[in-house]
Amino acid sequence: MNKIEFTDDLLTGNQNLDNQHRKLISIYNEFVSFVSEHGLNTSDTYSESHNILNKLITYTQIHFEYEEDLMTQMGYDDISNHKQLHADIVEKLSDYCIEIFNDKSVVADIVDFFENWVLNHIKKSDVEFMRAYQNKEKITGSTFHKNYMLQ
Fold first, then answer.
1. 10-23 pLDDT, tens per residue?
2. The whole model's pTM is what?
3. Domain total for the chain?
4. Is residue 148 part of a domain?
5. CA distances from 4 to 27, 33, 37, 116, 132 (A)
6. CATH number, domain at 86?
7. What's the pLDDT tens digit per position in 131-146?
8. Is residue 1 situated within a structural domain?
């Protein structure tokens, strides 16, 4: 299992979103490190891996709420599809959180899923959304985003 590095091709041009993506990757890397170091051989290691996944789910929901708020404020045309992508991601992460207790081989699925999410959702969907957002800001001269940072 490899950790994911936040690279320039993940930059959306929005500092808040980029920081949130860094945090999501950091939590994922925490999961990878824990499982690589400790395995899933005891109830304690299962429990801790479950806790890290729950942290990832919680932060993912906060992040998606922020993104969807931006989309709503700017009248993003593809908001319905983007919201569905978000709902599917949260549902899949929640499923993995349950499955990890029954099948430790699901860890490989979690790794594949997260890497796919980063490669496809952040690199494509989020970058596309932010281009539309930035174009709308240029046209209207408005700033749509909330001015807050998530820790």
1. 888 889 999 999 99
2. 0.84
3. 1
4. no
5. 10, 11, 16, 11, 27
6. 1.20.120.50
7. 777 776 665 555 554 4
8. no
